[in-house]
Amino acid sequence: MIWALNLILRLAIWFLLTADLSLANVAIGVSIALLLPHRASSAALRDWLRSLGEILVAIPQAYLEAIQLILQPHTEEVITTEQVKPRRTPGLIFLDIFLITFTPKTIVLKYHENGWYEVHRIRPSRRRLP
Q1: Which of 33, 98, 118, 123 meets the CB 3.0–4.6 Å disulfide criterion with 110?
Q2: Distance in angstroms (rounded) separating the CA atoms of residues 122 and 73
Q3: Residue 42 has what pLDDT?
């Protein structure tokens, strides 16, 4: 099961990068996805399912944030660090980065190998009293 999820993720990335669904490109994408190394752990399926649930929650959140940006411009910026969840495979780290970057108010600037993301956030400016 984990193997199939990793294969689907790799193919999705390949098709997003190439934007070509021709038979030759599908064959190349499947070949590359199968040749890349694969690791799986026993808790990985649970983590994958949790990440897929987070994706379903992120879609309406992204629309809400987009509407907020239209109605009230956000001019204040802040860079924070977030710790990577424990036992994350490279595919799940990619999904975490995708989820953070998917919403309009946040983007991952850098992933640190020691388990941290640098995240750029925007927020509404706070009114300062005169």
Answers
A1: 118
A2: 10
A3: 56
pTM of the entire structure?
A: 0.66
Residue 66 neighbours by CB under 8 Å, 6+ apart: 104
Write out the two tokens for 68.
Answer: 């907020």
- Regarding predicted confidence, which is higher, 3 or 74? 74
Measured N-to-C along each axis, helices 44-71 and 90-102 cross at an angle, to the nearest 10 degrees, of 20
| C-alpha angle 116-49-31 in degrees, rounded to nearest 5 | 85
CA dihedral over 98, 101, 102, 106, signed as positive or negative: positive
Reported as type and span, the H/E element at residue 64 is: helix 44-71
Residue 30: how many CB atoms within 10 A of its CB?
Answer: 14
Cα(84)–Cα(50) distance, integer angstroms: 15
pLDDT band for position 39 (cuts 50, 70, 90): low
Q: Which amino acid is at 89?
A: T
Closest CA to 82 of 52, 63, 108: 108
Q: Which of 100, 88, 90 is nearest to 47 (CA)?
A: 88
